[in-house]
């Protein structure tokens, strides 16, 4: 089976069955007993709405494991959920990690997976998985460029001959956009928003490029001055201004990667264009914005949210053929 351990969502792909599980990476814990109350979608509903003795935590921060124990318990829960309570489930697991991950973080992933009941753990780098999942010919001697904008990290990579030529991983992605919206509204309207509301705004009217439609949405939050709940109406242009900075960081990462790219491959990318995947690829106008900034053709993958899981799933299906993409042992 293959696991895409994302900051926002965890997807699990099982050999022969496709993606069987797609849940938010959130765990709700009862602090008195230390027991797990809910995992996934159930727990996500609890974020920002919990009583004192329950905390809803996201065990992964910026694409890497922040809370080891909880990640391990979450993985174990997912593995058991899929294997329909066969207690001796010891699957071979392929896990995706960001490309800019340190050795320690990599070991944490391997350790957590084996503790959660994996027989063998293989690691694949996210941009590689995203490229395979978007259906790019990664094994050919041509340059493929992938921009994977997830919840915690944005990965930009140029791939050729089944390996990563240049890659850059920045910790600015979906969460950072939500955060920028929260800060902006706090400053402009002195209104406090929750994480989930901010995410909702980003999805409904967020855009990275000036689209002609001027949409408005009303948001509810707590007024910092009076302390009472209050609604304000904000426009798409304002949201665009709020997320300007993180979007610029993403655009810059794409530019620096192109800058480090060998000239032969640059030519290939000019022909084939850049593929956007990950949840951030759904931000409206982002493709247009990158097209303007880089002058390259930009394509959005077919189902950007699942492409990493599909790619790592393909590695599970064709384990022998794609063996060279996986690192069974961490690179020392």
Automatic annotation (TrEMBL):
Localization per Swiss-Prot or TrEMBL: Cytoplasm
Gene Ontology MF, one: ATP binding
Chain sites annotated for binding ATP: 7-9, 151-153, 199-202, 279-282
Pfam families: MreB_Mbl
GO cellular component: cytoplasm
Keyword Cytoplasm: yes
Gene3D superfamilies recorded: 3.30.420.40
Keywords: ATP-binding, Cell shape, Cytoplasm, Nucleotide-binding
Family: Belongs to the FtsA/MreB family.
The protein, known as: Cell shape-determining protein MreB
Protein's gene: mreB
């Amino acid at each position: 089976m293959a696991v895409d351990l994302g900051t926002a969502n965890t997807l699990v792909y099982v050999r022969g069955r496709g993606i069987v599980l797609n849940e938010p990476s959130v765990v709700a814990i009862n602090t008195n007993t230390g027991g797990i109350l809910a995992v996934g979608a159930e727990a996500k509903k609890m974020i920002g709405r919990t009583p004192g003795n329950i905390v809803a935590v996201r065990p992964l921060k910026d694409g890497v494991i922040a809370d080891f124990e909880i990640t391990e318990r979450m993985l174990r829960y997912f593995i058991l959920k899929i294997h329909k309570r066969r207690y001796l489930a010891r699957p071979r697991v392929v896990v995706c990690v960001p490309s800019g991950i340190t050795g320690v973080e990599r070991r944490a992933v391997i350790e957590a997976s084996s503790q959660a009941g994996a027989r063998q753990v293989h690691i694949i780098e996210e941009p590689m998985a995203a490229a395979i999942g978007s259906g790019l010919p990664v094994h050919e001697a041509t340059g493929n460029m992938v921009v994977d904008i997830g919840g915690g990290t944005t990965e930009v990579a140029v791939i050729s001959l089944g390996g990563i030529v240049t890659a850059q991983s920045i910790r600015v992605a979906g969460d950072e956009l939500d955060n920028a919206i929260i800060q902006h509204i706090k400053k402009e309207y002195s209104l406090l928003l929750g994480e989930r509301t901010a995410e909702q705004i980003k999805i409904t009217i967020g855009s990275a490029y000036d689209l002609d439609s001027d949409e408005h949405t009303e948001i509810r939050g707590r007024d910092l001055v009076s302390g009472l709940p209050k609604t304000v109406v904000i426009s798409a242009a304002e949201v665009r201004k709020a997320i300007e900075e993180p979007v610029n960081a993403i655009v810059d990462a794409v530019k620096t990667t192109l800058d480090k790219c060998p000239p032969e491959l640059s030519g290939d990318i000019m022909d084939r264009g850049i593929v956007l995947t990950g949840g951030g690829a759904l931000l409206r106008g982002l493709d247009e914005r990158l097209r303007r900034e880089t002058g390259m053709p930009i394509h959005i993958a077919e189902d950007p949210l699942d492409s990493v899981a599909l790619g790592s799933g393909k590695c599970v299906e064709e384990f022998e053929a794609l063996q060279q993409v996986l690192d069974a042992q961490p690179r020392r």
